[in-house]
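Folding Problem: From Residues to Backbone Shape
Fields: amino acid sequence; protein backbone structure tokens
RECORD BEGINS BELOW THIS LINE
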Amino acid sequence: MKIKLIIINVLLLSVPVFAAEPDFMDIAPKTATPPNLRPEEKVDSILASVNGIPISLMDVIYESRREESKLCLVYNGNDLYQEVHKMRKKVLSEIINRHLVLADYDKKKFEIPDQYIESLIDDLAISYGCATRHELEAKAKKVGSSLAELRKKAKEKIAIQVMINNYYYATVNLTPKELFEYYEQHKNEFSTPARLKLELMMLKKDHEKYDQAIQQINAELKSCSKKNFSSMVTLYSDGPNASGGGDLGWIDEPRLRPEFAKALKGLKAGDVTSAISTDEGTYFLRLDQHEPGITASYQKLSGELRDKVETKLKEAAYAEYIEKLKKEAIIRYYY
């Protein structure tokens, strides 16, 4: 009964699972050669083994190829090589973890009702726009797979999810006290920081007639409107967006440099700081607008907070579970 309830949770409540899995919706068999590979990429090799079960380079590329194709949009040259290498190591680790969990399932094997497997097959058919099982079967055959292979994948997916969540439910018991303590220790995670809309004027130390310019600015700032400040920025500033009046837009208050935060402290909208001397030059900041920070109350956050804490606990429980399984397994690497 306990296992059955966990299966229902997995399927109907979408309980998060932290064992990364190959896309179940990919109906190609694991042994299929990924398309569009260059000749040198079609050379297979064994990267690792788990309890004697080999994991090949093609097993890894089969699961990483989609993300790898995105990397070439961001990186090139050696950077691309390094990112692909990291991606494949990550995927290899995920495959090893799945082998470990499935091996644990084989030791504690329990019956997975056919209705849950068939439910996943139905979802797969819908996602591929198949009105019937025959249509799904035809699509599977085109890529060298079959309904039997899809059912096997579905069963493994459910088994992995159930094993991980079973370990979580057996080891974690989140109490209201623990939830409140987490809130108290991590209030900043549930807060919106105060933010400021600033305009900046900056004179570099090599600015022409630097001292004279500073004196002139200080004199004019005694009665400085937004329009006047903007004009002075255009006239004097060596800083960013001088042509736009030095408008920096909104910035979170905690991100400010300490000397700027100190100078702005206690100012109201429309005020301008006195000269702020730094190694690179002298700054003047005009506070255009200020929005106070907001900290969500514990009562309003209770549902969101529980989800967040449970997610962290699940991640920790999963890592602990995998480490436990690794100690009981024989894992070899060949690269």
The beta strands are 46-50, 53-56, 191-192, 195-204, 247-252, 276-277, 281-291, 294-295, 331-333. Residues 53 and 99 are 8 Å apart (CA to CA). Residues 1-22, 31-35, 39-43 have pLDDT under 50 and may be disordered. The chain has two domains: 2-172+311-333, 194-292.
